[in-house]
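DEPOSITED CHAIN:
***
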Amino acid sequence: MKSDFSNSSEAEIEQFYKNISAKVKELRIKNKITQLDLALEIGIKSVAFYSNCENNKYSKHFNLEHLYKIAKYFKVDINTFL
């Protein structure tokens, strides 16, 4: 018998990542910054990887360092994304 000790479902975690990505995308578009420019600004050399994070493709997600750098770039509190 398998026991699930997690306090969160996979669907909840996926929604969490989607919410973060949507907020990053909204801020990027509002400030008229391209995916490539923001990716390079935060140290991501692949616009494809950045795009996958922003669009929740292939289980790619922004990590804390990415979010810190994005918040710093846009001069917003990191809690903006959470």
